[in-house]
């Protein structure tokens, strides 16, 4: 007899917005995915990507069993065989070359996977290697460092209280495409419109008039990478015009007013030409922001992942603080999560050790990923001989991907925890494919902490786990236990972990958390009983409790952050400023996101790729180089024409797309494309391969304070490729 269709309430884990979804299944088939109207947080909102969930589940090319590379290609093997072989090889390599000979790279999907977050660490601990890397250092590393220094914990990041604010300033974020980042916020469009409806303002500062700028009150072009200068001038204006409103915060940040002495040399008139925004406009923005009642100054990808990303994020925090908006309703607030991971996670050790070759600083146990290829290719003690890649595709997503691709070829052993044979996992000797998101229990242990409203939701696995499948946590725990055994370490505690599962850990956190008693009585069971999730109210003032420093005071860390002003002066104002050299030929490269794409990995979904024209020559209009018509004229380029884009490290050929939405002097290319490498296996993606922008980004060019990559503001040259 055929099973009846069943409805389940779950959560989309593709981006940070945590949309509730209604999934209809029949037997083990997914029939449909729609927005869950009864989810109190997302209220039925989903974006087009929700439809990709079914495609991912159905994708015939998604791996369902472990694979071993042989002379004639990948062949399936059993889980026991796969896990035993991986553990034995990693152990042997560490035995021969030392622990650091095994490197680990963790990609973005791990942040959306409670099993990886809670149980992955047992595996890294068993490996005990310094060579750990992740997508953090091509992304939000500056936020962690700012929070570590100022509030004492890398994850204690204030979130914009968007539903109550009067002024929302967005610097280098495009939430209409990304659905928000370090701001978990379903249905951002509705919320941005609501600000304007209640008389508030939304202002976007971006080298592109983005989709978000299109629905905002005001947009200012800014020269890529100059945001730190803008922030210095904004802070200067605040003092010069007596707009500082910090009385309440001084109790928690006694040194706050000393900021004045660091910004005195940055009047708007001095920075204006470098930033590309007039002094008048800068002053008006600051005045209006400070008069607004409440305001959020929010900076993301574009502001973080650039030459002065860490300084910029720090200055943004100071701007929120000095305008009285930290810890204020409608400003930047700390969240009150139901399952608080902070007391159980590392606060973020920094400055303790440095990478072997380039001496880049480790933060929270990880080196900047820009150091990865040289750590593989440079001989000597501590050289990486084997890599574990967990849910990431660094060949397409990290700087100088082509060089990393080549470096991977020389490794003795590679293992990938991934369900696709990607541009990266094709290097693997063994691939361990976990189940897809809806097939495992889920509680957002990261993104509830970054949400614009407090809420809690548990999404049980859709189906009983099929035999011969494993979740990420089962893979990591299985490897950890085997490696500990091989190292003659105690393994008794594993029995408890297998039984407890990550869900049990979340249950413990809920039961010891702030909503454990009283009205909500939170536990996994109470959440199971409320499958749409529950609302826990708006964000609340949380100082001084939010501060993890012993004295409960916010640490201004001037010595650390403001030290970077020397580099900034040099970069923008020295007679030898790189910005003045060859300035006529250079364009500055930035990135962009598309609503139907997700970093490197939704390009095999028929629903996401539908309607994408391809001219049969491998061109892909979604992967185009956007340039301003004035630049096109200057270089003799027609709309749609193939152009070459060249940086210090590489060259790509890509069709030009002319648009006056981009600032003159700037070129925008999205990342995650370049599915044209022999040996990867995603049929649809390969038909629309595009090129990888990270064959242009430069691993030697860093935000030096943090070691974070520079993906925005990369100097490039362009030229038309003439047909024939
Ligand atoms: N030029 C440029 N480069 C960028 C960016 C940019 O803006 N510009 N953005 C950067 C940012 S913000 C990020 S976060 C990185 C992302 O960089 P990465 O994390 O390296 O890349 P993803 O494409 O997210 O990798 C996803 C991989 O994980 C696999 N996967 C998906 N779900 C799971 C799962 O549940 N478990 C496991 N084990 N695997 C899974 C997919 O099959 C895919 O191979 O890219 C960065 N790169
Ligand atoms: N659809 C979709 N959604 C996603 C993702 C995806 O790949 N696709 N990825 C997810 C991930 S991993 C992340 S981290 C988030 C990122 O989410 P966002 O931070 O919103 O990132 P983007 O959408 O890339 O927007 C960055 C904006 O910064 C601008 N910009 C570039 N350089 C500069 C600069 O120097 N200064 C300023 N002021 N602006 C600049 C760009 O023009 C762009 O509009 O998105 C997440 N959501
Ligand atoms: S915005 Fe789209 S991708 Fe993000 S959680 Fe919601 S449905 Fe999923
Ligand atoms: Mo990201």
Condensed summary:
By secondary structure, the protein is an alpha/beta fold.
How does this model look, in words?
- This protein has 724 residues and is α/β, with parallel strands linked by helices.
- The protein folds into four domains: 6-58, ADC-like domains (N-terminal domain of TfIIb, Single Sheet); 67-138 and 376-501, Rossmann fold, CATH 3.40.50.740; 161-333 and 555-561, Dimethylsulfoxide Reductase, domain 2, CATH 3.40.228.10; 582-720, Barwin-like endoglucanases (Beta Barrel).
- Helix content is 30%, strand content 17%.
- It contains 25 helices and 30 strands.
- The strands form nine sheets. It has a seven-stranded mixed sheet, with helices on one face.
- A hairpin with a 4-residue loop joins strand 28 (702-703) and strand 29.
- Helix 3 (114-127) crosses helix 19 (493-511), helix 8 runs antiparallel to helix 11 and helix 11 (268-275) crosses helix 12 (279-291).
- The chain is globular, with a radius of gyration of 25 Å.
- It starts with 5 loop residues before the first strand and ends with a strand.
- The structure holds ligand MGD (2 copies), iron/sulfur cluster and molybdenum atom (MO).
- One ligand MGD binds next to helix 5 and helix 13.
- One of its GO terms (molecular function) is iron-sulfur cluster binding.
- Residues 5-61 form the 4Fe-4S Mo/W bis-MGD-type domain.
- This is Molydopterin dinucleotide-binding region.
- Keywords: Iron, Iron-sulfur, Metal-binding, Molybdenum, Oxidoreductase.
| Strands, count | 30
If you consult CATH, what is the topology of the largest domain? Rossmann fold
Beta-strand proportion: 15-25%
Structural category is alpha/beta
Number of domains: 4
Gross morphology: globular
- CATH class value of the largest domain: Alpha Beta
Named once each, the bound ligands are: ligand MGD, iron/sulfur cluster, molybdenum atom
The oligomeric state is single chain
Q: Mean pLDDT, rounded to whole units? A: 97
Largest sheet: 7 strands, mixed
Percent of residues in helices comes to 25-40%
Low-confidence stretches: none
The radius of gyration computed from the alpha-carbon positions, rounded to a whole number of angstroms, is 25 Å
By CATH, the architecture of the largest domain is named 3-Layer(aba) Sandwich
Intertermini distance: 63 Å
């Amino acid at each position: 007899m055929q099973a009846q269709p069943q409805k389940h309430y779950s959560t989309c884990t593709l981006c940070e917005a945590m949309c509730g979804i209604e999934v209809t299944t029949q037997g083990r088939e997914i029939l449909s995915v729609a927005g869950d109207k009864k989810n109190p947080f997302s209220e039925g909102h989903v974006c087009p990507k929700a439809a990709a969930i079914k495609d991912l589940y159905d994708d015939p090319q998604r791996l369902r069993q472990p694979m071993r590379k042989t002379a004639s290609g990948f062949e399936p093997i059993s889980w026991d065989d796969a896990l035993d072989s991986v553990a034995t090889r990693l152990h042997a390599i560490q035995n021969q070359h030392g622990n650091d000979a095994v490197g680990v790279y963790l990609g973005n999907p791990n942040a959306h996977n409670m099993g990886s977050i809670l149980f992955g660490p047992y595996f890294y601990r068993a490996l005990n290697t310094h060579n750990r890397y992740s997508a953090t250092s091509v992304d939000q590393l500056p936020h962690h460092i700012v929070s570590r220094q100022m509030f004492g914990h890398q994850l204690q990041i204030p979130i914009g209280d968007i539903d109550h604010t009067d002024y929302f300033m967005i610097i280098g974020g495009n939430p209409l495409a990304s659905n928000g980042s370090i701001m978990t916020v379903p249905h951002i469009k509705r919320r941005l419109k609501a600000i304007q409806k209640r008389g508030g303002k939304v202002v976007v500062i971006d080298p592109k008039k983005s989709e978000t700028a299109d629905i905002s009150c005001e947009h200012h072009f800014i020269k890529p990478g100059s945001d730190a200068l803008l922030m210095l001038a904004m802070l200067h204006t605040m003092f010069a015009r007596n707009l500082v409103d910090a009385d309440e915060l001084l109790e928690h940040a006694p040194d706050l007013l000393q900021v004045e002495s660091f910004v005195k040399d940055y009047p708007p008139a001095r920075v204006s030409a470098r930033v590309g925004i007039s002094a008048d406009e800068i002053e008006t923005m600051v005045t209006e922001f400070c008069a607004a009642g409440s305001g959020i100054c929010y900076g993301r990808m574009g502001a973080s992942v650039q030459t002065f990303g860490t300084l910029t994020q720090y200055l943004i925090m100071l701007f929120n603080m000095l305008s009285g908006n930290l810890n204020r309703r409608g400003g930047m607030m700390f969240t009150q999560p139901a399952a608080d991971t902070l007391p159980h996670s590392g606060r973020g050790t920094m400055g303790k050790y440095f990478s072997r070759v380039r001496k880049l600083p480790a933060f929270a146990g990880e080196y900047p990923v820009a150091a990865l290829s040289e750590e593989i290719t440079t001989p000597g003690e501590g050289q990486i001989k084997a890599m574990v890649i967990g849910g990431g595709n660094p060949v397409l997503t990290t700087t100088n991907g082509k060089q990393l691709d080549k470096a991977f070829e020389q490794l003795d052993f590679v293992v990938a925890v991934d369900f696709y044979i990607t541009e990266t996992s094709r290097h693997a000797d063994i691939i361990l494919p976990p189940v897809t998101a809806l097939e495992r229990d889920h509680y957002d242990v990261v993104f509830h902490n970054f949400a614009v409203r407090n809420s809690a939701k548990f999404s049980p696995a859709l189906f009983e786990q099929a035999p011969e499948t494993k979740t990420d946590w089962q893979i990591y725990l299985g490897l950890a236990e085997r490696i500990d055994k091989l190292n003659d370490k105690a393994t008794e505690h594993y029995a408890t972990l297998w039984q407890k599962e990550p869900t049990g850990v979340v249950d413990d956190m809920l039961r010891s958390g702030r909503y454990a008693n009283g009205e909500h009585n939170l536990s996994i069971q109470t959440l199971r009983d409320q499958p749409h999730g529950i609302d826990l109210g708006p964000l609340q003032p949380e100082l001084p409790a939010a501060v993890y420093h012993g004295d409960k005071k916010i640490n201004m860390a001037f010595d650390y952050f403001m030290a970077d002003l020397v580099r900034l002066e040099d970069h923008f104002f020295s007679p030898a400023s790189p910005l003045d050299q060859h300035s006529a030929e250079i364009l500055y490269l930035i990135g962009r996101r598309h609503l139907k794409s997700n970093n490197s990995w939704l390009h095999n979904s028929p629903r996401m790729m539908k309607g994408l024209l391809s001219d049969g020559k491998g061109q892909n209009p979604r992967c185009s180089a956007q340039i301003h018509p004035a630049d096109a004229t200057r270089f003799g380029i027609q709309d749609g024409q193939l152009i070459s884009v060249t940086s210090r490290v590489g060259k790509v050929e890509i069709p030009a797309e002319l648009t006056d939405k981009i600032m003159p002097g700037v070129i925008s290319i999205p990342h995650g494309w370049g599915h044209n490498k022999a040996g990867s296996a995603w049929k649809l993606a390969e038909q629309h391969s595009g090129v990888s922008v990270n064959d242009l980004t430069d691993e030697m060019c860093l935000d030096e304070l943090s070691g974070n990559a520079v993906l925005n503001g990369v100097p490039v040259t362009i030229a038309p490729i003439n047909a024939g």
